[in-house]
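Exercise 7.
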Amino acid sequence: MGVEGTAVLRGNADVAPRFERGHANTVLHDAAAYNYAVHRSTEVHDPTKLRLNPPELNFEHGGTSKEKACRKGGAKELGDSDYKMLDEISIYGGEFHPSSKLMCTIYTYDKVHEKVMPALTETWAKRCDGFMASSTLTNETLNTVNIPHKGPEEYNNIWQKVRSTWQYLHDNYIDEYEWFYIGGDDVYMMVENMKMYLGSEELRAASENGAKPVFLGRRFFRDGKEELQFNAGGPGYVLNRAALKTLVGTFDHCGVDLKGFWEDVQVALCLSKEGVLPYDTRDEEGRERFLPFMAGHHYNYRPPKKNPMSDWYVRYSVDLKLGKDCCSQSSVTFHYILPQLMYRYEALLYDLCN
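Solution. The predicted structure, written as tokens, is:
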């Protein structure tokens, strides 16, 4: 998670200052208070389990019904704006290039397993070539794995949680997948669009057929400064195999003992020191593929009229587009999608309402 950690798009004055304070080098210095020692997980999860044995879709697990999920309007979280934006998106239905093989990972914790994991595994996660959830408790039925990390299990220590998760992915699956995605438990992915993009001629060329590190996501320029760019953690981001090897290779000297919520900024910093910068993932019309908010929020968002630059989202975005032009027809992820909305997105995007 990073600076975009708010569902309110307009005028959140606290976001940028909170980011500035959070990016100070807070260090895990008290071994007793922060459980300084790291014990790497020795558990190995079969990431193909979900794809090979996908669960049936059950709207009730999201606290909704098919009728409610398909309804235009209705309750606040099921408003028309989501419907209108999702109607602009097409799900790729063709074949995938072999270079698109994707390992999907989300991070969560055991207290919300029963709430979030059914929604994830019954909707988008089962379409990934491999899937696991980095958590605080192993549950094979829910595809969660306990991955220990330095420091406490809390929002303000997500960097260490993500750092350990990347290490785990590298140690166990580096030779099995071409691409590795990580995001929170409130992400919805259009997996077919993601795999289509990952296997595209564009990315095969950019990665020199996998030989060159590639770092994909929603680029933000901190206060408009290109030299301070990072991929937002909210919609998740993707590393190819070469980039994952590069990132893990920095872990003995980059952010080793830091404690903070700005994992996305720290990942970008570690990679930038090795010459790996966020790749421009916009489509040919300049529309974003990785979206840091709900579909409807993007559809409705307009900058403050009096002072657009007072909104961090305007300052950090690159050539921001508005309305239905905000989002690519081949978008790959949305953020802040709670379980009820995951089922709604599933129903609308995959024509389950007919």
